[in-house]
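User: quick one, fold this
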Amino acid sequence: ANPTWPMPGAEELLSQLAKSDKALGIVSNAQGFTLPLIEELAGGFGVDSVFDANLCAFSYRYRQAKPAPRLFDVLCGGLNRAGIAPAQAIYVGNDRLNDIWAASQAGLRTAWFAGDRRSLRARSDDAKAVGVKPDLILTRLDQLIDCI
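Assistant:
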């Protein structure tokens, strides 16, 4: 029902981050096939080597979806157990309400990925999203490397 495609530059970004010591997670309104799909789209490395399962929260597991705070509570709990304060983490998303507003409410720093018109969600008609300022605006995913 929801077509998927890799974000421009995602494979390269994940390859670079996989070589770093950064902890990576996913907060998503996606379903159980998300991690295998990312692994398939990303190519030459396994998801286990990139994403920390303790930093992943999927809506199907918690029966709540972004922008509700539950998924971000799960993420922040995983960050705390790893000794990482939410303000030390950056959350990257393409939806100004579901990602940027919701993550900022949880105390995370935010990066709005505005480099893919098909997936960009400005949410200009939602009062919560109006005036929300991400910490970063990325037009290419590789820009994140220089910022972290």
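User: anything notable?
Assistant: The two ends are 35 Å apart (CA to CA).
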